[in-house]
């Protein structure tokens, strides 16, 4: 089971008092495991400003991107493509993180501080990767943070067509269990690419209402560090 870290000394305030027009709701604090978990459980996530020496920025989007587990769009071509991938969970977390952080990618935001913070969360059992493999090569994947029934997606990458999409669909399958109605798959902001897969936008108030229920829901079995076999998941 995940190891609960020391509690954070920081307070993010009452989400009900956040500016209803601004996604940015906080500046500062740290990226200790306890701080990150407290933030996710309150609906916040961190992103660096991009300027060396600046404090961390914390966001709680006014319009939040979420993927309903019963609303994922899988085209025929994607379904065919998925049959060529092997999906694994948590077998190459650091490789997935580094692929997502590749500085050659446009709009890269994962810096060294973020990298180290999520490696610590992974070591404690809170951050997870869903990976797509072909012929023994890592070709795509995603990573995020799971707390109870919340999975907060952080980033994804692909080296082959449909590899990241296959990882996202596989994640939905992992979360789609007897507690699916209370789970929450958060993707932060919607994009046209994500919308094509079924991501929708909900208001901040609605997101926080769903979040309160999600974090009291049991962790999905596939993300429980209880010795489950991580390899060989079917995607077809």
From TrEMBL:
Chief localisation class: cytoplasm
Gene Ontology cellular-component annotations: cytoplasm
Catalyzed reactions: N-terminal L-lysyl-[protein] + L-leucyl-tRNA(Leu) = N-terminal L-leucyl-L-lysyl-[protein] + tRNA(Leu) + H(+); N-terminal L-arginyl-[protein] + L-leucyl-tRNA(Leu) = N-terminal L-leucyl-L-arginyl-[protein] + tRNA(Leu) + H(+); L-phenylalanyl-tRNA(Phe) + an N-terminal L-alpha-aminoacyl-[protein] = an N-terminal L-phenylalanyl-L-alpha-aminoacyl-[protein] + tRNA(Phe)
Record-level GO BP terms: protein catabolic process
Enzyme class: transferase
InterPro entries to which the protein is assigned, alphabetical: Acyl_CoA_acyltransferase (IPR016181), Leu/Phe-tRNA_Trfase (IPR004616), Leu/Phe-tRNA_Trfase_C (IPR042203), Leu/Phe-tRNA_Trfase_N (IPR042221)
Keyword Ribonucleoprotein set for record: no
Gene3D superfamilies the record matches: Leucyl/phenylalanyl-tRNA-protein transferase, C-terminal domain (3.40.630.70), Leucyl/phenylalanyl-tRNA-protein transferase, N-terminal domain (3.30.70.3550)
Keyword entries, A-Z: Acyltransferase, Cytoplasm, Transferase
Subcellular locations according to the entry: Cytoplasm
Coiled coil: none
GO molecular function: leucyl-tRNA--protein transferase activity
Keyword Transferase part of the UniProt annotation: yes
E.C. number: 2.3.2.6
Reported function: Functions in the N-end rule pathway of protein degradation where it conjugates Leu, Phe and, less efficiently, Met from aminoacyl-tRNAs to the N-termini of proteins containing an N-terminal arginine or lysine.
Similarity comment: Belongs to the L/F-transferase family.
Name used for this protein in its record: Leucyl/phenylalanyl-tRNA--protein transferase
Naturally occurring in which organism (per UniProt): Nocardioides dokdonensis FR1436
Gene name linked to the record: aat
